[in-house]
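Q: Convert this sequence to structure tokens.
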Amino acid sequence: MPIVTFFPSGKTLEVEEGTLLFDAAKRAGLPVASSCSADNVCGRCNMQVLEGAQNLSFQGTEESRLLRRDKNPLSDRISCMTRVLGHCMVTTRYW
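A:
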């Protein structure tokens, strides 16, 4: 099973493959910014991928659009749209 590491806390969480990053962070007890309750609209739940970008689901057109709209790097991921497929390490600008 994949392991997600949250930086800088160092918290780790073993998740089932296909788990949303958003859900993994919530289960780890970390706050996740969101005004749309993970309905893929606001883009506030974006996370920076520090390691394991290749172990995340494909970034679709809508996710890219939200990142560009908010002037975030395309290397960021919208956590309510991103599924964990393998080990990764992520952070946010507010943790």
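The two ends are 25 Å apart (CA to CA).
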